[in-house]
Amino acid sequence: MTPSLGAHLARELAALEGRQRYRHRHAVTGVHGVRIKIGGRRCINFCSNDYLGLAADPGVAEAMAAAARQTGSGSGASQLISGHNRAHAELEEQLADYLGRPRALLFATGFAANVGIIDALMGKADTIVADALNHASLIDGARLSGAAKRVYAHADSAAADAQLAEAGSGHRLLVTDSVFSMDGDLAPLPALMAAAARRDAWTMVDDAHGFGVLGGGRGACAAPSRSPESRVPSPDVYVATLGKSVGAAGAFVAGDEALIEYLIQRARTLIFSTAPPPAVAAAASAGLRRLQADQWRRDHLFDLIARFRRGCEQLGIVLDDSIRDLAHASPETRNPKPETFLTPIQPLVLGSDADALAASRALLERGYLVSAIRPPTVPEGTARLRVTLTAAHDAEQVDGLLTALADCVRRAETVA
Ligand code: PMP
Predict the structure, then answer these.
(1) Virtual CA dihedral for 291, 292, 294, 300, nearest 10 degrees?
(2) Residues contacting residue 374 through CB under 8 Å, at least 6 positions apart
(3) pTM of this structure
(4) Residues in binding site
(5) Which CATH architecture group holds 58-293?
(6) What number is the ipTM of this complex?
(7) Which numeric CATH code is attached to 23-52+295-415?
């Protein structure tokens, strides 16, 4: 007899619990920031994507509140019906101007953007060439599109080139994260873009974790180039989110006129979905102005990243970047330069789920919130603590985390 849905799901949940894969949400009280209260406990938050500290910026919050007083709480409809407000249009213009691209288009979330864009652009006769560690939304967009998929070893531009060379006769789209969300390393964008150009492939970069932080704020594709070969040409499709460094919510794609107009006609996650509240767009506009004006936020963040990495080295905490590459590229062609890891995402790969969970719990006891990331989010055997640094942290907090990590990570290793 078929079990009831409830009985079936209860068994599945028990199995997750048994494999240490059960995940819990904890409600944060008050503002999302560095000092947070979560599940009634005060702690220092080291697992936020609010890289510039703008989610707790009073000016950004006030811009949102003022816009809500003028435009109400909801957009009321999808963009193509009556949900596209002046505040959305202004933000799109502001984003296009900032990036020096002809147009930008808002989506309600980064997940919706990636799924909708890939599904709109690619079809059954086409091929998507994708990094093995691309974000789930890029993977799901590729699945939904029905295109053939060729996955190359993580950050391996030679492997990407080979996959592009072998792709079928339809359109080819090379898709990659810029900063990988669970590893914090950078895709070798110049080499990938060169391979795509050689093979006549279109390019799409998801800069969710680079926009606002890298390239003086303009993102991974605008990183200052020391040599012609390290200059990144603009991808055909540039996606970034507004819920991370911008401190608001939502996402956008930037590109040429035809791309944006086509997506307005064809991206189902935009057409059949309510537009974000105009007040959210107003908050993103304010966040974008702040991130342009406040270079000090990026300078401070990069100081903290360097301090954290130096501290790990001094304390013998293994931030061995080659561990992160275990499941990844061939040693000859992967991108192991130290600057590849200078991003706010600094994971400590511990291996087993139990180790990662034990270390995360021990850190919480000491007042530091660092999430344990386990499969299927990361490959089997590479469970990790994912430390993220933000401009809202200070040196003392980073030093405190380092001391706690030195104890907790070792403790986790001894327990195992
Ligand atoms: N792309 C990447 C690389 C991400 O890490 C995320 C979310 N963490 C998304 C897309 C999805 O963005 P959003 O949270 O706005 O849905």
Answers:
(1) 70
(2) 20, 21, 353, 356, 357, 383
(3) 0.94
(4) 23, 110-111, 135, 181, 209, 241, 377
(5) 3-Layer(aba) Sandwich (3.40)
(6) 0.99
(7) 3.90.1150.10
Cβ atoms of 304 and 106 within 8 Å: the answer is no
pLDDT per residue over 272-283, tens digit each? 999 999 999 999
Is any ligand 1 atom within 6 A of the Cβ of residue 135? Answer: yes
Residue ranges of the chain that CATH labels 3.90.1150.10: 23-52+295-415
| 109 close to ligand 1 (CB < 6 Angstrom) | yes
pLDDT digits (tens, 9 = 90+) for 141-188: 999 999 999 999 999 999 999 999 999 889 999 999 999 999 999 999
Amino acid at 131: D
State whether the beta carbon of 181 lies less than 6 angstroms from ligand 1: yes
Tell me the binding residues for substrate: 23, 135, 377
Task: Determine if ligand 1 sits within 6 Å of the CB of residue 243.
Answer: yes
Distance 334 CA to ligand 1 centre (A): 24
- Cβ of 241 closer than 6 Å to ligand 1, yes or no, is yes
CA–CA distance, 279 with 388 (Å, rounded to integer): 27
Q: What residues contact residue 81 under an 8 Å CB cut-off, 6+ apart?
A: none
Give backbone dihedrals phi and psi of 36, rounded to 5 degrees, phi first.
Answer: -125, 165
Lookup: tokens for 402 = 């380092």
A 10 A CB-CB count for 126 gives: 20
